[in-house]
Amino acid sequence: MPCSSKEDAERSMLYSYTYGFSGFSAKLNSTQAASLSEMNQVITVFKSKSLKLHTTRSWDFLGLTVNSTGHTTPPQLAYGSDVIVGIFDTGIWPESESFKEPPEAKPIPSSWKGKCVGGDVHCNRKLIGARFYLKGFKETYGLLNHTRDHEYRSPRDHLGHGTHTASTAVGSVVSNVSGFAGGTARGGAPLARLAVYKTCWGKDLEGVCTEADILAAFDDAVHDGVHVISASFGLSPPLTPFFESSADIGAFHAVERGISVVFSGGNDGPDPGLVQNVAPWAVSVAASTIDRSFPTSIFIDSGFTLKGQSLISQEITGALALATKYFDGGVCKWENWLKKLANETIILCFSTLGPVQFTEEAQAAAIRANASALIFAASPTKQLVEEVDMVPTVRVDILTGTRIRNYHDRSSKVPMVKVGPSKTVIGEITAPSVADFSSRGPSSLSPDILKPDITAPGIGILGAWPPKTPPTILPGDHRSIEWNFQSGTSMSCPHVAGVMALLQSAHPGWSPAAIRSAIMTTAGTRDTSNDLILSGGSMKPTDPLDIGAGHINPLKAMDPGLVYNTKTEDYVLFLCNIGYTDQQIKTMLLLHSESSTACLPSYTYRTNADFNYPSITIPSLRFTRTIKRTVSNVGPNKNNVYFVDIIKPVGVEVEVWPRILVFSKCRQDHSYYVTFKPTKISSGRYVFGEIVWTNGFHRVRSPLVVFLNNNGFVAK
């Protein structure tokens, strides 16, 4: 760009990244970008892409309960005040009760270097930092249209997504919230401090986050001194290489500095291979249900009673009508309305007609027809999604909806329906089950690393909400609430962040890898009925491609016994094995990193299956293979003897050596080897098992994921 003036260069500049690495983002044309990439001092140039957001009882369900006096369990009371959690999202509503400074709050940690930016967000000893990043969004989409998008040019939250996720992770204890899910709301680490980084902005009712803004937020967060970063956004496949992904680069920098990073795994399920945020240095989270339900009785005429799920506060009566009477083809969508009013009528809609992907679509249609209420028949997973509805809505499964329709068709007169009011019931439904929408593995970038890593509550999660933002964010919804139900891996992600904050506080010397390991190796694979966790929609047993290591268990994660540790050098070797060049790997490292980027043959693993991850994945097993793992003793006692138990994948012989690990010191390391041998012919299928190390108290579990693809050859 020799012909460009200094003024032109300054005008094109968006961000200068100074803390994590030396770089910048700027508005360039293709010729300028190509010229820049050819300069000797430049490692790489890539385009800034746009990422999308992944959109009370949950902590009780995870074992972090509130007692009769309103106090939380010891781990939540004892830990967290020295930990700072950074939330990368749509901002914050600082006036929410979740973010008020508790009277007993300790001084802000002296290590904190962040600040509050913007005059309409005021920080305290709970909310200690707030920044916003708009330059990348502005260059991609133009100036914010406040009239259309109602956005705030500050850290203040308009969409509600960021307020909700922040309250889930670290919200203070708030009593007497929301009628149906009433009780005490709080985040996983209610004593932890909150730092907000507004990277995502409202555009056409969606949250959009540009990579230029995301990388700037990571740069600041690393400098500010956060301990945990929670980011509920991602990019649907095809996934970008790690060295061209701002989120992955920023997360790498954070982990190098000892900061744990957790991402949502995406809402593209249930098809396989669509999981997002698959870098091994960060945690990717699936979404699952909790054991709370809101049963609602549906009375039809005098003797026909059925059950659904809703948040209806008072009884509603009306005539039963099929959607075909008011909507073209029976498709409950705004544009299909036949211009007939459904006064004092309860309409039955099926999600399968159209199809109607979201309950809100059917609700908007029912409002247009002036219906009194809606009965929405959908899959079991969609039936469980609790929302603050625009029109009173009872969710039923397809079978129940069909029974209602058949009753209507057989009746000689118009049936009368009475619904509600709803109840709140704990423990009646079996949980967890994995959400149908939750993105599944394997990783499309690195199939030798299991993703998602873990599953956590992500359906019907109650969290704080901006009172100036309607609960559905849809046109025509003018309601004001302070607590809202939301669903998505966006909601499961901050659950893991809250647990990370507790672990960071309880074990300040642990690395991000040790924290990840503690969460994964203590996770559960069984539901409240002690059966295998089911996959939403199909209601078949899950496997690690659905739930990773399993369902998070915060109390067990506090004392895992053994952990799998990794260092920056291990991540570099991982990138070498993928085939990245030294130059590409340099884009991942911090500015003053001491790690080598030389991909020497003697310096690499044989495969990334040897990467010291808490799960073990063999992406293609044709012949006998042996991999290595190393564990560290972090239990309360220095003297420990662990024995191995093995559940073998079908068609695979598994041997572990040694079968006994003897520890005599704290933080002592021991390695073991696992040999996989195919015993049956397969042209390609995933099979699953597990390895468990136990000392009688701790149970350190690693899932085994093997793609058996021996092409007709069986190892002898």
TrEMBL record:
Origin superkingdom: Eukaryota
Keywords: Glycoprotein, Hydrolase, Protease, Serine protease, Signal
Entry keyword annotation includes Nucleotide-binding: no
Gene3D superfamilies (UniProt xref): 2.60.40.2310, 3.50.30.30, Peptidase S8 propeptide/proteinase inhibitor I9, Peptidase S8/S53 domain
CDD domains: Peptidases_S8_3
A Pfam family reported for this protein in Swiss-Prot or TrEMBL: Peptidase_S8
GO molecular function, one term: serine-type endopeptidase activity
Domain spans labelled Inhibitor I9: 6-54
GO biological process: proteolysis
Catalytic-site annotation from UniProt: D89, H161, S490
Subtilisin-like protease fibronectin type-III domain mapped to chain residues: 610-706
Entries under SUPFAM superfamilies matching the protein: Subtilisin-like (SSF52743)
InterPro entries: Peptidase_S8/S53_dom, Peptidase_S8/S53_dom_sf, Peptidase_S8_Ser-AS, Peptidase_S8_subtilisin-rel, Peptidases_S8_3, S8pro/Inhibitor_I9, S8pro/Inhibitor_I9_sf, SBT
Domain Peptidase S8/S53: 80-526
Family: Belongs to the peptidase S8 family.
Protein name (record): Subtilisin-like protease SBT3.18
UniProt organism field: Eruca vesicaria subsp. sativa
